Amino acid sequence: MGTELERIAEMARKHPDEKLTTLAHYINEDTLIGCHHDMDRQKAVGVDGVNWETYGQDLQANVDRLMQRMRKGAYRPQPVKRVYIPKAGSDKMRPLGIPCHEDKLVQMQVSRILDAVYEQEFLDCSFGFRPNRNCHDALKVLNHVIEKRHINYVVDADIKGFFDNVNHTVLMEFLQMRIGDPKLLSLIKRILVAGVMEDGQLKLTEKGVPQGGATSAVLANVYLHHVLDSWFMEVVKTHCKGEAHLVRYADDFVACFQFEVDAKRFYASLIKRLEKFGLEVAIEKTRIIAFGKNASHGREENSQGKPETFDFLGFTHYCGKGSNGQFRVKRKTSAKKYRTALARMKEWLHLNLITPTAEVTNMVAMKLVGHYRYYGITDNSGMIGNFYYHIRRMLFKWFCRRSQKTGMNWDKYQRYLNRFPIPRGRITVNIYDVRPELISYIR
């Protein structure tokens, strides 16, 4: 499968101005079986109730029947099961789509084909759901832009309900610019309009890409590549008086400018640009702030206090100084992400009151390691230290509540932790350790 995807990528590189017309045949028995083996066995089941193990009991026959339907044009994705998960930092719930296992296989292979094609198209300012790029890379590049370039203003923007408002017609037009295989395009269209099943009722999906499906990430990137990335690089930058830079991860993005007039012009144009493609700026979450070396100096001279802060990818960015007294961008865990992480741990401990102590302690340790791996970034030692402190006290309360007897006091708990320790917070990500190829486009 890897060789076939490399062949697609090579075709896309060699023919950047041509449509690729022979792609659907890469969805076959072998690639679908490979997708089945690569899939997470613990994934939730869709409306048909079929899980990884059940489908795999007669894998070859199941895939053969699936391919027969696809070759006849009789394949129709089943509706996506819609569930709701808590949205970080609010009382709202985020909709999540769970396709059936068979549809997951098709979507996984379609997404791999699209990734191979569009990885040659996507711009360097895009970081979300792309190979060899992650959230930390986006944070490192943003840090480099603000510290090393002439940046004085930041547009902290948010697209309102992006995944629920992607226009299918526009998306298909974007895909047709690069893909000329009618079979693949028809399959993608069927995936988009499969509908969702919620509380036993089928609802049509006339717009949007359900979060949870394997294709949603790459289709979202295709949409924003045309709507935002290319427009910013080809139009916005060329009309700016000073420097302008964009850093985007999925539908979260930050635009940085040298001059306020450029930032204001971009903000006004952004509203019109998104409306043109069926999207909307979340006004209450979008603003222009003075941010950077000069912004910090200017506010200090005018006795206005420290510059405003902004949140990006779970971190609050603020202006600070290094040990040499020079300007530096610093970051810490955003308040809403911090509260959400504590609330989730508290809920998990409550649900495991009767779970063996050793097992709970081990799971808490694993959860802490996961937290540190993401939030353990330069300058954030205080917040991850606080997180460790609160989790340690939370675990002590859990010990006390396991029994009505007061069999655990703090001294006994400390001896227990000495024997079965939970990891302390530590920095795992150096914000200045940025790969040269990620910032080579910044000029």
Q: How would you describe the overall organization of this protein?
A:
The protein has 443 residues and is an alpha+beta fold. It is 48% helix and 13% strand. The strands form 3 sheets. The chain has a 4-stranded mixed sheet, with no helix packed on it. Helix 5 (101-118) runs parallel beside helix 9 (216-236), helix 12 runs parallel beside helix 14 (381-401) and helix 13 runs antiparallel to helix 14 (381-401). The relative contact order is 0.11. The mean pLDDT is 91.
Attribute tags:
443 residues, four-stranded antiparallel β-sheet, globular
> Structural class given helices, strands, pairing?
alpha+beta
Identify low-pLDDT runs: none
H/E series:
HHHHEEHHEHHEEHEEHEHEEEHHHHH
Straight-line distance between termini: 37 Å
Tell me about the largest β-sheet. Answer: 4 strands, mixed
Strand-residue proportion: 5-15%
Radius of gyration: 25 Å
> What is the total tally of β strands?
11
Strand order of the largest sheet: 2-1-4-5
Helix content: 40-55%
Q: Given the C-alpha coordinates, what overall shape results?
A: globular
The overall pLDDT average reads 91
Number of helices: 16
